[in-house]
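SAMPLE LOG
Freezer: B-3
Tube label: C17
Construct: single chain, 169 aa
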Amino acid sequence: MVVFKVFSLFSIFFISCFLGLTISKKFSSRVKELKEIKSALNMFEEKIKFTYETIPDVFFEISQNTSEGISKIFEQASYNMKMMSAGLAWEKAIDESNTKLTKEDKETIRGLAKMLGKTDLDGQVSEIRLVQKFLETKIQDAELEKSKNEKLYKTLGVTCGLAIVIMLI
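STRUCTURE (predicted):
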């Protein structure tokens, strides 16, 4: 009986710590994904400036060179462009994405859809640069939020676990 109680207390403590770590990783994942999208948009800008590849082909190539969550956005947008306009395909891919990005982040990235495939090269490049500037501020905000909240949730997980264990003893 004592072994079961000790095992249960350790389990509660480790589950609480795990939950704290899981929640805290959300903040670092968001920063990573925002930086990855900024990098992917930089790759997109360079590809459309110096090659004559189509937007779906460029998006598919970007999907092959990015991390899993962001890669799905570009891959889905590339696939959607076969059936709809580039702007709508991009918006749909953003909406269906499974990332740690906030609603505001997605709205910023969705801004690219306004000019995607509708203007000349210079118009698209300027729109990409505008979205990248907005992403820079989002990255700074996300890093600030990460620095404040990441340690908080880790500590909160440990503290709550200890509190529950102490109350059950």
